[in-house]
Amino acid sequence: MAGWHLKAPATSVLTDLHTLLKLRHYCQQHGGSLIHVDSDTENDFIRNYLRGLSRSSGHQWWLGLTDELVEGHWRWTDVNKPATFLDWAPNEPNIAVEDCAAIIPLLDFHWADVLCDRLDIIPLCEIRLSEETVIVG
Ligand SMILES: [Ca+2]
Ligand SMILES: [Ca+2]
């Protein structure tokens, strides 16, 4: 998976990203979509990547995954299809009103459902170019 990159957006951008829709638009403005994980290989790569970054930042990261339409039915927002690969932390997802998913450093970079209007979570976007995938944080 050569060619993956990750960049944190400016604080002024983050404070305006209140909803899943805005997060999607943020990624689309960068020519991509909120991140979509299909396999252990991809998931391990992302976790290792964020592990390195989060030692200094501790940030949580949005996935492009939601159950806002039907509770408990998690779908990827970029393709609007049910998720077949999931990497929930133990005891997650745990609260029905939490309809968005994020990667949580404190849970060993596994996933948790969280409220979609959390302002402290950074969008993780992926941009697929012809031969590489770029992540714009
Ligand atoms: Ca939910
Ligand atoms: Ca939760």
TrEMBL record:
<dbReference type="InterPro" id="IPR050111">
    <property type="entry name" value="C-type_lectin/snaclec_domain"/>
</dbReference>
<dbReference type="InterPro" id="IPR016187">
    <property type="entry name" value="CTDL_fold"/>
</dbReference>
<protein>
    <recommendedName>
        <fullName>C-type lectin domain-containing protein</fullName>
    </recommendedName>
</protein>
<dbReference type="InterPro" id="IPR001304">
    <property type="entry name" value="C-type_lectin-like"/>
</dbReference>
<feature type="domain" description="C-type lectin">
    <location>
        <begin position="24"/>
        <end position="118"/>
    </location>
</feature>
<dbReference type="InterPro" id="IPR016186">
    <property type="entry name" value="C-type_lectin-like/link_sf"/>
</dbReference>
<dbReference type="Pfam" id="PF00059">
    <property type="entry name" value="Lectin_C"/>
</dbReference>
